[in-house]
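Let's do one together. I've listed all components of the complex below, 351 residues spread over two lines.
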Amino acid sequence: MLTLVGADRPGIVAGVTQAIFAAGGSLGEASMIRLGGNFAIMLMAAVDGGEVRLREALAPVVARLDLRLHIDLAAGGLHQHLTPNVQVRVTGADRAGIVAEITGALAAVGFNILELDTDVAGDPNRPLYLMNIQGFSDRPIEELEAAVAPIRASGIAVDITAVETLIG
Amino acid sequence: MAVLEILTLPDERLRQVSAPVTTFDDQLRAFIADLEETRLAGPAAVGIAAPQVNVFQRIVIVDVSGRKNTPNHGYRVLINPEIAHWEGFEMAREGCLSVPDYTGNVIRATRIRLTANDPWGQPLEFEMEGYEARAVQHEMDHLDGTLFVDRVVSRRTDLFRRKVYQRAGQDPGQKAGQAAGSA
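Okay, and this is what the predicted structure of the assembly comes out as:
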């Protein structure tokens, strides 16, 4: 598992992936996004020679684009997908602690977060905080609702819906 | 009756456009029985289209009657289906027998009016909504060589967030316009 972060500019993905390809590596699942002015890459890769070979191969592009590189040895592979069955949408006046409170309440009932993104929108003087979570829970929705009820009472809108996957 | 082999991506055959059915005979109805048996043999699919089993004719089957609280028309064979009218849009997660081990969010119309023929060639007309409308749109895409992976949208789109803006009691008009543009 590689994590690469650097100031956003065109060519980061191309540079990183070309270096891995040239080293005979192959890519697995990846998630990449611009956050603030940075571009962040999380990437599964397999390379003969492992971490040493990977660092060698990436050294030129890391230096050229001024990236920070972190490598974790990770078990991975295809077909380890967990399909989300619950979606949680949160909006409220921006204040410290929203994410900690919501995720804490959900974790307490065994909710497994698979994906989470947040944003701040609205008037700069009255910022609106938005969070989308997709995750997996084997508990009834009512139990999740009960877990977040105290947070809702504090004025944060929390919408919990079952996500059903249509197979066709 | 037989369970047929399902084509899976990246099989290029799934990309072809299927031809209209012109002969409504016993052979067609025997194929439909096999197609339904194939649908039921797999993982809980609410629909199947003929191209998924290497038959490039405009035939789909949908049946969402097993889902709770879902308006539906039961088990339906739709031959030469055409959507005459659609409205509304909504994002939801889909998977496909032809794309194992992958699911993604897709935007579909929430209400459709549909014409088709039944297995004897008789004309059909339906108004469908929600889950059933989504299933029909997913299956009809196969007839034109389109798969849901061609329609998967980012989970971080404006469109995804539009409902949240509405819930927050703000004017969704401007956001809706932007979202439609980006979709």
